[in-house]
Amino acid sequence: CGKIITLDEQIRSAMLHAGINITELADRFGISQPNMTQRLKRGKFTKEELQKIANILGCEFISEFRFSDGYKY
Known about the structure:
- By secondary structure, the protein is mainly alpha-helical.
């Protein structure tokens, strides 16, 4: 079982992989860099906002509940 990382760590790792810094992410997201930094620290994003971040980073964000019987929500 791997280490559980925070949403902030996930996004920052994805940013590094995509070669996008916090200023560029904030600009393309439509908010100031200090605001983005605070949002990352709090980890408060809607599912739609996480999808927008994924689009900016050129990747996909998958969020669902998976049950052992195959059901996903």
